[in-house]
Design goal:
The protein is built from 1 helix and 10 strands; from the N terminus they run E-E-E-E-H-E-E-E-E-E-E. It has 171 residues and is mainly beta. It has an 8-stranded antiparallel barrel. It starts with 8 loop residues before the first strand and ends with a strand. The model has no long low-confidence stretch (mean pLDDT 91).
């Protein structure tokens, strides 16, 4: 993880500069599907003591795109994400801790389809430049832990997620 000093404070996540990218294997691991989701809102609190820092992000589940409209409609349907009933995916950190060699882990509660589970993100980049900073975190998520069991094993149960956030204004 690249790290430079980031001023303590509360920062609003700017949805225009934030992104959630994911990959998942289908056809029994022979094909990789790539997609994106839009961040609705969020906030990062940077504390003097990194262990007291916090992240909260809400993602628009209906914004899912993979480049194939038919697949997208299926994934946002009741069969998978059920966006009519649960329009947001959320993550709220519980702990942020250095993991050695300039990296950090961010553990917290992710909620998908109304099911809350502990998820751990590896913070792979955190850097500041010209008064702006960027945070990149990655996780491997077991979708079946959230009750998203459709099409297993045709579609892999693990989703690799990368979140990139460039916080905007200080709150």
């Amino acid at each position: 993880m690249t790290q430079q000093t980031i001023a303590p404070g509360r920062y609003r996540i700017d949805p225009r500069t934030a992104s959630v990218r994911f990959t998942i294997k289908e056809f029994f691991g022979l094909n990789t599907v790539r997609g994106t989701l839009a961040v609705r809102e969020g906030e990062i609190t940077v504390a003097e003591d990194p262990a007291r820092s916090a992240v909260h992000v809400a993602v628009d589940a209906a914004s899912l795109t993979t480049g194939r409209p038919r697949r997208d409609r299926d994934v946002i349907s009741r069969r998978f994400l059920d966006v009519a009933r649960c329009p947001e995916l959320t993550f709220a950190s519980r702990t942020i801790a250095p993991t050695g060699a300039g990296s950090a882990a961010m553990a917290g509660i992710m909620t998908v389809r109304g099911v809350a589970q502990e998820v751990r993100f590896e913070v792979t980049e955190s850097r500041s430049s010209g008064g702006e900073w960027r945070l990149v975190a990655r996780a491997r998520i077991d979708r079946t832990a959230f009750g998203v069991r459709a099409a297993v094993p045709f579609v892999d149960r693990f989703v690799d997620v990368e979140v990139e956030i460039t916080p905007g204004v200080t709150l």
